[in-house]
Automatic annotation (TrEMBL):
The keyword Transcription does not apply. This is Pimeloyl-ACP methyl ester carboxylesterase. Gene3D superfamilies: alpha/beta hydrolase. Residues 26-245 form the AB hydrolase-1 domain. It comes from Micromonospora cremea. The lineage of its organism: Bacteria, Bacillati, Actinomycetota, Actinomycetes, Micromonosporales.
Amino acid sequence: MNAATVGPDGARMRWVEISGRAPARVYVHGLGAMSAPYFLPAATLPELAGHRSLFVDLLGFGLSDRPAAFGYTLTEHAEALAAALDAAGVRAADIVAHSMGGAVAIALAHHRPDLVGQLVLIEANLDPNPPPTAGSSGMARYSEAEFLAGGLASTLDRVGPAWAATMRLADPIGLHRTAIGLTTGTRPAMRHLLERLPMPRTYLQGGRSGPVVGAESLASAGVRVVTVPDAGHNIMLDAPEQFAQVTAAALAQPALA
């Protein structure tokens, strides 16, 4: 296990790492998740294996610390992730990020483009104020006191055993504040930041999730939009072989004009 001090009061971000060739690949989990359980099965398949790979847990989640003084906005998560990548000696990495982690990755690429060579986003949150059915907004409808008093327990029952398996390990305050930060979004919003980024970018959508909102605008901005049939929101878990294939293909392609 690797770690770097990145937050208030000496808070440490931790990750599991596999050695390999450059560029490094950095995997970033979604809300209430952890990177290794979500990504390792696909990232170790032949199509993606061989690169230095870091499976990072953001502050408040998984193996990483839970600093009470941390704000848990998308920008603060991105700044903490940047500090960890600096400590790890990572530059121009392939960032592969899921859902909320994709929003953090967009903020990272905006603020520290030297750290990001390419972006692969898996159903990343691109817009603030998502529909009430989304997991983040379901948590954000509670006040912090309500979430701690019973909202977390209700959320764990609602999301089902697979998501709850990692969500129950998250810091409740960090989980709730991150959900608030996700519904608030960035300024400009993540979608607009993504469309303006200079590096190669790919957006993966599960076929069972429906069409990508604003797909034409993303494509016009040079973002490749790829649908993975027979997969839902967790593409890397629903269809690991297909995920490995389309991710490897995305990372092997040159930037669009």
